Amino acid sequence: MKSEVFVNGLVCKNPNYVKTEDFFFSGLDKAGDTSKNLGSNVTLVNVNRLAGLNTLGISLARIDFAPYGGLNPPHIHPRATEVLTVMEGTLYVGFVTSAPDFKLFSKVLNKGDVFVFPQGLIHFQFNFGAVPAVAFAGLSSQNPGLVTVANAVFGSNPPISDDVLTKLKTAV
């Protein structure tokens, strides 16, 4: 961790000290707890959890959804495109294009279906089915970032002025 060589903001490990564990992660076979966080749980495997991803430009996630309303709320990944594959259950997914159109592209996905969310666009996944759903996502960055829209707008610190939010609501 004392190296002066950084790639994408992370220290490059001396190749003489690299070990097998730097390229290994275990646990994506285990369901995440969906009893909180809007009925979903994201297990992200990025460079912070798997050192061997450094400089490779990829990461992945397992997303578990509770039945009848498990939601991965509208969010963006500022540094990654996401490709999502449904492994179990049924999900309603979509993304919204940028201005001036703000067009919604959405689809109901079943087991084995794949959907792509372009980098930086607001997107979501929702389980309206009677059984839990599981999806795996590949992301085109070792550190894709996450901005949940509602948390950013209504949970900023310090908060955004009510005058701004009220004016915003009436302008839509």
Automatic annotation (TrEMBL):
It comes from the Eukaryota. Mn(2+) binds at residues 75, 77, 82, 123. Keywords: Apoplast, Disulfide bond, Manganese, Metal-binding, Secreted. One of its GO terms (cellular component) is apoplast. GO terms for molecular function: manganese ion binding. SMART domains: Cupin_1. It is found in: Secreted, Extracellular space, Apoplast. The keyword DNA repair does not apply. Oxalate binds at residues 72, 77, 82. It holds the Pfam family Cupin_1. PANTHER family: GERMIN-LIKE PROTEIN SUBFAMILY 3 MEMBER 3. Belongs to the germin family. This is Germin-like protein. It comes from Rhynchospora pubera. The lineage of its organism: Eukaryota, Viridiplantae, Streptophyta, Embryophyta, Tracheophyta.
